[in-house]
Amino acid sequence: MSDPMKLALVVLILLFAASGAYVHLRGRVRHKAGRQVFDHSTFTAPINVFMYAFSRVPTTPYLEPASFPHLKTLQDNWQTIRDEGVALMALQKIKAAETHNDAGFNSFFKTGWKRFYLKWYDDAHPSAATLCPKTTELLKTIPEVKAAMFAELPDGAKLGRHRDPYAGSLRYHLGLATPNDDRCFIDVDGQRYSWRDGQGVVFDETFIHYAENRSGQNRLILFCDIERPMKTRWAQWLNHWLGRNVVAAGASPNDAGDKTGFINKIFIVSHVMGQYRRRFKRWNPTVYRVTRVLLLVGVVAAFVFL
User: Which structural domain, as residue segments, surrounds residue 231?
Assistant: First the structure.
């Protein structure tokens, strides 16, 4: 490798490291440094820093729902949406993935979380159009909503602390059939919000967040990803392109007739590898941690010196 190429590679590595450090230090709540190094949000950090820099809305943990006027359609029709969601619950259609074909939310199923997809970027789910015709028609009128689902958090269920990997979207929750109880909450960067029927909240899911339900009752919400508004047309185009061509590959089916994206088609390989990784970690946690660090150092050294 020539000296100019090595210099360019070193600069890229430094920019990558700086982006990862920014993501780690952003907000009041942080992962331990060792976890952050291997977290998916570190690997997407350069893209996410770009999204923060060109965001047209504040880069705060929570944002005012009134700043997103297109969400008023959902707010005004929350009872219609609730009725279709409650009917789905009665049919037991809001559920965990039946196979390992939902990479984005796979870990959540272990702690009780359930979902039913209504749309995923440009791909509509035929099962949703059949079972939730009114809600899917409402969503068609709001192109800013890139993904939507009904999400259940039963009593006793929880979601562990995590960051979502992609800052090109923001998260909207609309309370439908909730406990209306402060013991059922989401915590975003150390600030708690408790769902209430008919009320919505917008937050940045790339801050560390977690959720718990200790209320004694089930919780049902409409869960949406909204495309982050950007300052310039070209930044908005790039955000839209990444969503349509990368994030859309994470489509997961409700039923056999729904589309499965490329990421979830190959997720079974990652799942099997993860089983071996977890066995290795249980065998000797110290050796496991040292091996991870050595592999990371080896990859960086290979790029720099080869």
Answer: 62-265
